[in-house]
Structures
1.
Amino acid sequence: MTLTADSIPVAYTPAGGWTQWPPPVLAGCTQPLCDGAPDMRGFWQTVEVYVDGTAQPGHPAIGHVQRIEQAADRVVVTGAGIIHDMRCDGTLRNGVHDVAEFDKSTEIHVVASFEDGVHVLRPHGLNVGTGPIEVRRWRDGEHLMWDYIGFTARLRWLAAPDADPELVLAQIETQEQTP
């Protein structure tokens, strides 16, 4: 039997968030990415953060690790205790229906789409400053760029999404200890 993005149940953040990396959601699914989807598959670590174009070397997002899985128009972002599983079809119905990262309990509903090679998230009913919130991810050469609320980050690829998270984290620690 071939695993498709449709045949795998939607994953959700467990109550209170996860404390040990959960297994990949789309493991074994070999369905190709849909047209217009940037290839964001892998474990990624934030290495640079910019606020209003100025580098912020001490920003709390530096070092953040996230795993991104993809198949067809489906994207699963896992990191910081959450699992956000979505279809990028531009509908609220098939977007993220989960909890916010900041407290692991506030419900969020997010429309997800691919627009001109960019993964775009628009939380339903949330605004900041003069308008709605928009979170974006796109490839910039070998890096992944992540536009989040108040900052833009550059992430480096660490490993394939099916890699053992413990080995990925050990690799980071080893690199940080090497002068």
2.
Amino acid sequence: MKPALLLAALLLSTPALADWKPVEKIDTYAVSGQTAEQLYLSIGEKGPLIGTAGNARRVIAHTFFKLTWQRDYQPQGNACVLKTARPKLIITYTLPKPAGKLEPALQARWDRFAAGLIAHEKVHGAGIVDMVDKIVAFSTGLTVENDPGCKKVRAELTAYLDQLSRAQRQGSRDFDTKEFGHDGNMLKLIAAFLDGD
């Protein structure tokens, strides 16, 4: 077989880890005001709520995701093999948007502020995509012996998913702590918006 044909055959027979793409959406919530301070106060009143009912708080912006899977479990002899795992990932970024027209100087300040917000949220999105890539890599071809009913392989996968999910959430919290901490990018972004720098 020619090298190019051999490579093509290998590529076709090897599960592709990057053959999926997330769907990214932007939702907005309306804020009102004709000064930076008024707009920021409106964000505080109308921003997305996160946390549990008794511990909910408003945030400026938020990244949410919905992840579902198509998995092909195949018994092979006494073992079970997870042949393929195809994710469907929808990432939704929720961001503020002025309800009315802003005067040009304020609009320019808002545009810089909004660009910084989406850049921050996209880091959260990249962390989610990285987690899903790791799940695909771990899942594809996962084999468990003495599992003709494909129950043990599911339990092993679930344990790994739980571990990855906890790591992703912690990474997201750590990133926010740094961004909103002393001299963090988000604090600078908010100060620049409010002060007009």
3.
Amino acid sequence: MLSVLIETRNDEEGLARTLASLIGGAVEGVVREVIVCDTGSTDQTHRVAEHAGCQYATGGVAAGIRQAKGDWLLLLEPGARLMEGWIDEVVAHTAKQTMAARFSQARGSRMPFLARVFSGNRALADGLLISKRQAAASAKSAGSAEAIARGLATKRLDAEIWMAPARQERSPK
């Protein structure tokens, strides 16, 4: 069973889009829980999480990792959407692998080459599937989900993710 952690701050719209893409995983019994790890939102993030039946943790991803019940964690940015077929890929990976994994970017969400070169590389843009044990060890020295994802050796899953827009492109609240 999988615990999904979404670290967010003032991105209620992005959070709602990401939660909608997880419904199939919840129905299939793959997603055990979704924990919204808030880092100080002043918008309606808490209300979106509550209406969707998510758990809500303040204090960022480290608090969410401690609270998670699943042996595997899926870390996502608010606004990211998992595409059809992700459930089977995640189940297959967690059954036989111990290393972390990332999704493949959906063709339509890939940035042009020069935009990728000049934009900041977001380690969490492709999501991160990681064992709770490894995430907990990384969280001791990392202050955010992005920091946990940065620099990890990962396997590429044969399932796609529609990347969240870069934070500066999102409408401010």
4.
Amino acid sequence: MTTRRAVLASAFSVRPFGVGAGLGALLHAGPSWAGAQMEEPLVDSVRTALSSAIANHAPPVPEFSDTESRLRYLRWLGAMSERLARKYSDWNIRKEFLQTVWYESRRAGLDESLVLGLIQVESNFRKFAVSSAGARGYMQVMPFWTRVLADGDASKLFHMQTNLRFGCVILRHYLNRERGDWFMALGRYNGSRGRAPYPQAVLKAQKIWLA
């Protein structure tokens, strides 16, 4: 796990943004701020690094160095599963989804609660969500990313791990571009860089997913 995360991790640490409230209202709200990433030129070294980060399709199997780390994960999984039950009634679906969020978030050096908050805002946890701009899936990834970083098959963005992998890699890329500024990175992810509503919505949603 440490080796895989090193591909994307930067010197910027990720911290939670507060305590949660309003779980029911937020979980039942529609995706108010879903937008679209803008296609921008990438230097070859950046494209190569991002492509490499996308290409490893190993299954998201958690690995732990000690018993306490495993117990922390299991406590997190249990707590998040209870909160997600309003969206997915089946335990196995919740487990697979949360395990993948945990794996891909950590692999990209992101906080799981922030990724869950972003998914809440972007797609309201709908696997097959499509925005008016054409962004797809849980994390509303624009199809051009599959052409820039992979084989160009945009249909793969409806595959759970692929969508979460792309979303987390792209968000980490934007965070690096913005030198650790979450406000600007989230705006860039949404295609609304510099405007407050979307970052504020994600950070508000994040609060209900804090462990």
